[in-house]
Amino acid sequence: MLFLCLSILCSVLVSVWLKLARRFGLDVSQMVAWNYLAAAALVAAVLHPSLAPLRQPDAPRVALLALALLLPAIFLALGTSVRHAGIVRSDVAQRLSLLVSLLAAFVWFGQVPTSRMLAGLALGLLALAAMVWRGHAASADGARSWLWPLVVFAGFGAIDILLKQVAAAGIPIAASLQAMFALALPVALGFALLARRRSGARFTARSLAGGLLLGLLNFGNILFYLRAHQALPHDPALVFAAMNLGVVTLGALVGVLAFGERLSRVNAAGLALAFVAIAVLARS
Hints:
Keywords: Membrane, Transmembrane, Transmembrane helix. By secondary structure, the chain is mainly α.
């Protein structure tokens, strides 16, 4: 369980660090770019991936290129969501994104849904709707507070579908991570250059350091999650449920207690429904 706890901690700390970025004068677009430099270097140093599978004729190059574009874009969306909607809503949206890949499994991959899966799906969609509910807020900031979590939800769901395609092609996880992070780096740098052109913000050593720390947390989340599956090879459902419920719980505690995020009664009901939905899906 130690690996699971470390993975949960790293996942929530990613959101916390994105939340604190502006307070420390850090540029999020630059942080996201340098995050991939650190993550790619750590994958090479710790996991020692063989890149031979990536050179095979049937390697899923289109899926890997799509991930290289989507990963930095959704990471930036997560940063924006954390800023406008808070850690609680953003982490719930990220964790409930598994509903997107579940729907894809039914529609595109021919998986036959069970009654329990459908119940979990319905509860998850209700939880998402309740978590982004903002009552009668009509201001631009009110719109951003529900729009960005939905972008995070859809984006991480699309990433999960692409990751499943890469895995189905027989690419080892370490090799796919190395390729994704290396390809995402120039894309993220391009986003950072566009942001600089728009805002005039210069590249700084402070944002570089913040991005390297973000990459360390991002890699730690992935590494410890993989180690948890290796430590509990016969309990994948336990790892899945504990990881998602742990992130939602810790994210909620940190958001409410450390950052003073407020949840309406509808939002709180959505948080409770998210717990139930994840538990139901884990038992499926």
